[in-house]
Write a sequence for this structure.
């Protein structure tokens, strides 16, 4: 294969060096994960694999650099801060922003989780912006990630369905969900951080498919730079509790949605 996959056995048997318990208290994660490399998500407490499609995946460092540069250069980073601390989106509202580079963005919040915090989604609002962001993925070397997913899951043609910036300054609740049940390894979402606050925890939760009733039953994964969390359509996942408001900080992560489209399922 063109990529390395660290399996549960590799990790549990010590065939790969893992991060310390301080860095990842709840999972055993490889210390170094190259671009496009995979690692099963393994519980630290019992050595079990959490989910067959839920994995850690190495992201090309250039991608993080280019997206951070774009956000700061266009003012979208400042808009994100204002959305959380000055002018938040109301339930059911879409705020639209036309930036000087010609891009157009839409900001919205969740009707379901709004009482749990201020998580907000910022999405491309037209085709020009979608293509602009697609060029950043290309320039950052995202093909190495696509190659991995194609080989690992037998994908014929992966379509990048969308790119979303997810921002949050505080969250305390339960939003464990799966994106598209029954997708059968044809739909994926990779979540990885661009901005990690210096204060407070920055975690994504992943749960076993038997289901959980509380966020405390899920497995927290600390966000790490240039490491994404891959979830399939059936993978249960959600937001870890956080609160960055004391220092006016916020977390910014990217969610990129990928779909395996072929002649059999295109309809």
């Amino acid at each position: 294969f063109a990529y390395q996959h660290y399996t549960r056995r590799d990790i549990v048997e010590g065939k790969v060096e893992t991060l310390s318990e301080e860095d990842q208290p709840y999972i055993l994660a490889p210390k170094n994960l190259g671009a496009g490399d995979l690692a099963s998500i393994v519980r630290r407490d019992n050595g079990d694999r959490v989910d067959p499609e839920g994995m850690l995946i190495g992201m090309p460092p250039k991608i993080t650099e280019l997206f951070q540069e774009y956000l700061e250069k266009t003012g979208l980073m400042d808009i994100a801060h204002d959305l959380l601390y000055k002018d938040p989106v109301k339930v059911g509202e879409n705020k639209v922003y036309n930036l000087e580079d010609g891009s157009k963005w839409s900001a919205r919040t969740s009707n379901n989780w709004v009482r749990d915090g201020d998580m907000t989604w910022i999405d491309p609002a037209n085709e020009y912006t979608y293509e602009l962001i697609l060029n950043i993925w290309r320039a950052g070397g995202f093909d190495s990630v696509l190659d991995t997913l194609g080989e690992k899951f037998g994908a014929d043609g992966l379509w990048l369905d969308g790119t979303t910036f997810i921002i949050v300054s505080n969250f305390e609740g339960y939003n464990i969900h799966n994106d598209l049940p029954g997708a059968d390894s044809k739909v994926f979402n990779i979540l990885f951080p661009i901005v990690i606050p210096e204060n407070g925890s920055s975690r994504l939760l992943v749960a076993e498919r038997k289901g959980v009733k509380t966020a405390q039953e899920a497995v927290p994964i600390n966000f790490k730079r240039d490491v994404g969390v891959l979830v399939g359509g059936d993978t249960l996942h959600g937001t870890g509790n956080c609160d960055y408001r004391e220092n006016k900080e916020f977390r910014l992560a990217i969610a990129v949605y990928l779909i395996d489209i072929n002649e059999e399922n295109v309809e």
Observations:
- The longest strand covers residues 158-168.
- The chain has a mean pLDDT of 92.
- The two ends are 31 Å apart (CA to CA).
